[in-house]
Amino acid sequence: MYIPVYLAFIALITIKSYAETYCFDDTTSVNEVYKTVSDFLKPQDDFTLKRHSNCIEINSEESRKGLIDKIIRRNFNVKSMYWNDLEPTKKQCKINISKNKQTKKQNQTLKLSTTLNLKSEKNLDTIDESTSILLSEGLWGSFSINEEEVSVMCLSKAIDVYEISLSVVFNQEKILTNLIVHLGESIEIAELIQNLKSKKTEFATKSGLSNQKVKTKYFLTIH
Q: What is residue 166's DSSP assignment?
């Protein structure tokens, strides 16, 4: 189940970050493929015929990649298909946002003899809802928590160590904070953002914002 967030993927939508390559058998003409797909292309889309390998390469907006894929597969027999990263040197961050992550202890008793029992405890993580965001390093994306939009960006600082930038708008001002997060580490961000807004202005403190509890806890994890 996914969090009912509205993922903006600001950078990924506006920037064509990768291209798809479709290859066909000898019975399919790439010229015919182009004729079929061309009606659905926009001027800013890139289309390349690779006749030597009987393939085509399409670089379109993220929002229309699924449509073009369906058109090609509906009309032609695709032999193979793969993605080309337009910026192969750019790393990617897989960010997971989980809602109400809790840890429960599971008790287990092992009977070793009639007089000796061995008790053990096992921590079990329970997550109400979660979603994952795949961001290219240095590019912004966004998600919503507790009905508030949060912008996020990541940078690799060392092996398994990332700098995460979080930004929200409060009282028409942008608040930005940076966190150092290790791979697999979970950081509770809903209360963090609430505290940032509380410290931003005296009004926030006087209005009791600093004493308010967040509606729902959200945890950010780098995978």
A: E
Q: What angle, rounded to 10 degrees, do the helices at 30-38 and 65-75 form?
A: 130
The single residue listed with the structure tokens 């006087």 is 206
Alpha helical stretches, state H, 30-177: 30-38, 65-75
Going residue by residue through the chain (223 aa), what tens digit of pLDDT does each one get?
555 544 444 343 344 456 788 888 888 999 999 999 988 888 888 888 888 888 898 988 888 888 998 999 899 988 877 766 555 556 778 888 888 755 555 555 544 444 554 554 455 555 677 777 777 788 787 777 877 878 888 998 888 999 999 999 888 888 899 999 999 999 999 988 888 888 765 544 454 444 456 668 899 999 8
Answer whether 68's CB lies under 8 Å from 21's CB: no
In contact, 132 and 94? CB cutoff 8 Å: yes
**Which backbone phi and psi does 73 adopt, to 5 degrees?**
-70, -25
Residue in this structure with the two tokens 């509205």, named with its chain if needed: 6
CA distance 30 to 13: 27
Q: How far apart are the two ends of the chain, measured CA to CA in Å? A: 18
Distance CA 167, CA 142 (A): 9
